[in-house]
Design brief:
alpha/beta; seven-stranded antiparallel sheet; seven-stranded mixed sheet; 27 helices; about 40% helix
């Protein structure tokens, strides 16, 4: 089937600003969509209000409106641009809700704008809780007992019939906004009244809770000819009850039997076909761990954060394929851009394991409620690829940049055995670390499973990590033990801590034994066909699949996960850096671990390494590739922190040199620079500990502004008005910040702030 006739100009809706529940995944999908439309010779008009995105770049769409993403403005753009069609399924919930509103208000009809991809009727059947329930009943797909309510009293009436716990899901919201699990009347009252306010249509679904069951997701693609494939299955380590965006997720599903995989895959395909989705769709299911019973939880008839994960985990460009389907192609007519030999109707197969680990903002909001439930709290996520789950898990922990390098939290050491056991009951961002600590204290897998309902297979993997720690601590270090530890994902710095050496010494010992990582390719087809896109991950195996070229090359360090203070702006910078380097004739290498970004798209750089941004992982790649130099200034604070290590080993840093970076970032050295340049500043002192901080506060006079070195977005930067504040904040800072560098105490000045950007 040829692409749609009479469509020459397409309006694409972006997702607006980054918010909790919506990170960079819609910049990635929107950028792929715009590029796919332009490949077809179509004119593209984009509306998005986030200036830090790649998609709002002048050469991604033909015309870009950096304006509010709302009905009034969209109508004015439609009136002015007169697009033939609208693509709304790649801008998250914002795009979907606006398509519904534009249709409801008759604007699409009035200006004769055709909706591409999944149609309004299908969106409503997936998003409207009542229609979804009817659709599932029609095709005999099991859903939990539920009712639709528009008032709190109706919710309470249902609670009297069914009992607690109950899950509240407001209609037409993103990231579980306004939802939650209610265990009693009081909680139900609170959650439902808030949920109805958040819902676009003042409606919420109240359903029986299946908390504790396994949560499985399928990413499905369907075209207009009813061809359907599943790109990827994903299994949440956390059972039902924790939002999938806040769950550690493995792909493909790890603990299911073949019968369960096929049963849930078929259910997902049947649902997507019945809904009439055209493009990408995410299906979430709950599976009883003790039988073949399952329930359909919900469906997203658009690309989601899970789509970005599925896409990067498999190398299958979901957003691009979904866009081609939207303009009329069938799956068998779309080329798989990764292999360039197969078509998009080949289901990806994986010969490795992928782990997604969320990144939460609790380092910024230290007093916030850390418990996890049905409302997403994560700001972003990291992804790790390895040959076994243990190694993927440890890679993911290193990628998070939360000051931890292993599945081990120093502050848990101070807890008694009883306190650790008690902490296992708490469902929060630290639970996996607590479980590892519990295993160190002799708690059994069965005990932890009974409390958490996490599958025993996953718990065994955590136990394997703890057992390997014991081997390293008690056995003499040999080449055989070193290789076994590296295969389980242990970092040099972790091993160094257990055997009383530095990470540099462990690195030399390991290399002396010839134990270095090999790199494998992500190719969508488990090496059945040769891939044309160099997209790699490291592992400790025999065969290396990287063919290093002798071209001039430059490595660009990415910025890792999205967190508060670090949105998509560093991804934007990294991508532009790569484009500029390509223009100058360099081969480009990107190292990053964020699955939501354009920088980790298979076709942005000449080579992509999906790896943690730690000194060990980066040096391993640089040892292999031997680039002319490394660019660190576009990866935000993450990349800047690695600069001094690059300098130490004599690897050229392109752009601002490491010493100049340190002079700007280290509070003490920056103070000296201002002194040298005779630039006036507020009186201040640099301190390394609490006693020094209290003495400095006395000398300068309260209030004081307290600022650590090498931080981003004002993290752990505070105004202390009293001595008690100084004591509390020094505690917070020393817990979360590497104290190799000082904290600056400045006299706090009330005044006007201005900035200058200079080149």
């Amino acid at each position: 089937m040829p692409k749609l006739q009479n469509v020459k100009k397409v309006l694409v809706i972006g997702s607006g600003p980054i918010i909790i529940g919506q990170a960079a995944e819609f910049d990635y999908s929107g950028t792929q969509a715009c590029r796919a439309l332009k490949e077809e010779g179509l004119e593209v008009v984009l509306v998005n209000s986030n200036p830090a995105t790649i998609m709002t770049d002048v050469h991604i769409a033909d015309r870009v409106y950096v304006e509010p993403v709302n009905v009034e403005f969209l109508e004015s753009v439609i009136k002015r641009e007169r697009p033939d069609a609208l693509l709304a399924t790649l801008g998250g919930q914002v795009g979907l809700n606006l398509a519904i509103d534009l249709d409801k208000q008759g604007i699409l009809r009035e200006y004769n704008v055709k909706l591409l991809g999944t149609q309004i009727e299908s969106i409503k059947r997936a998003e409207d809780r009542e229609l979804f329930k009817e659709t599932m009943e029609k095709i005999n797909q099991p859903i939990p007992e539920s009712t639709i309510v528009e008032t709190v009293s109706a919710a309470k009436e249902f609670a009297r019939e069914v009992g607690y716990p109950l899950i509240v899901r407001p209609a037409y919201t993103l990231g579980g906004t306004g939802g939650g699990i209610a265990n009693n009347d009081e909680e139900l009252d609170d959650i439902v009244s808030k949920g109805l306010l958040y819902s676009l249509i003042g409606q919420a679904l109240i359903e029986r809770s299946v908390a504790g069951w396994k949560e499985i997701e399928y990413e499905v693609l369907r075209d207009a000819d009813d061809n359907c494939i599943t790109v990827c299955s994903m299994e949440n380590l956390d059972p039902v009850g924790v939002h999938t965006g806040d769950s550690v997720v493995a792909a493909p599903a790890q603990t299911l039997s073949d019968h369960e995989v096929q049963m849930l895959r078929q259910a997902s395909i049947d649902i997507v076909r019945e809904l009439g989705v055209r493009g990408a769709c995410n299906v979430q299911l709950a599976l009883d761990p003790n039988s073949y019973r399952y329930y359909v939880i919900e469906v997203n008839p658009r690309v989601s954060r899970s789509s970005a994960l599925a896409s990067k985990a498999t190398g299958y460009p979901i957003a691009k394929v979904a866009t081609k389907i939207a303009v009329g192609y069938t799956l068998d007519e779309i080329q798989n851009a990764v292999t360039q030999k197969t078509t998009a109707c080949f289901e990806p197969s994986l010969d490795y394991v992928v782990l997604k680990f969320p990144r939460w903002p609790f380092d910024k909001f230290v007093t916030a409620d850390r418990t996890l439930g049905t409302q997403m709290k994560a700001t972003g996520e990291v992804m790790a690829i390895e040959r076994n789950l243990e190694a993927a898990l440890l890679k993911a922990v290193r990628s998070l940049e939360i000051g931890l390098i292993h599945l081990e939290m120093p502050e848990l050491k101070a807890l008694s055995d009883e306190e650790v056991r008690e902490r296992i009951h708490l469902i929060d961002d630290q639970r996996l670390f607590v479980i590892a600590e519990a295993f160190r204290r002799g708690v059994t897998i069965d005990e932890v499973h009974d409390i958490t309902k996490i599958d025993k297979w996953f718990l065994q993997k955590v136990m394997n990590i703890v057992e390997m720690e014991n081997r390293i601590k008690t056995e003499p270090m040999t080449a055989e033990l070193m290789l076994a530890a590296k295969k389980k994902g242990f970092a040099d710095v972790t091993i160094a801590g257990y055997i009383g050496k530095t990470w540099q010494e462990v690195r030399e010992m390991r290399k002396g034994w010839g134990i270095i990582p090999t790199y494998k390719m992500v190719d969508t087809c488990a090496a059945e066909f040769e891939a044309a896109t160099p997209y790699y991950y490291s592992t400790y195996a025999e065969e290396d699949e990287v063919e290093v070229s002798d071209k001039k090359k430059v490595a660009v360090l990415g910025s890792g996960p999205i967190r508060i203070g670090q949105g998509v702006e560093f991804d934007y910078c990294s991508v532009h850096s790569v484009w500029a380097l390509k223009e100058l004739g360099y081969e480009t290498i990107i190292i990053n671990n964020n699955p939501e970004t354009v920088s980790t798209d298979f076709d942005t750089s000449d080579r992509l390494y999906f790896e943690p941004l730690t000194i060990e992982d980066v040096l391993n790649i640089l040892d292999k590739e031997k680039p002319e130099g490394v660019i660190v200034q576009f990866g935000g604070q993450t990349a800047i922190k690695l600069a001094k290590h690059m300098d130490e080993i004599g690897l050229p840093i392109l752009g601002t040199p490491a010493d100049a970076i340190d002079e700007a970032e280290d509070r003490e050295r920056f103070d000296e620079l201002l002194e040298r340049c005779r630039i006036p500043r507020a009186p201040g002192r640099t301190v390394f500990n609490l006693d020094e901080a209290l003495a400095a506060a006395d000398e300068i006079g309260l209030p004081v502004l307290m600022r650590p070195s090498y931080v981003l977005g004002g993290q752990n930067m505070i105004v202390a008005y009293t001595k008690a504040d100084v004591i509390e904040y020094m505690g917070v800072i020393t817990e979360h910040v590497d104290m190799d560098h000082p904290v600056l105490l400045d006299k706090y000045i009330m005044g006007t702030e201005c900035e200058v950007d200079a080149i």
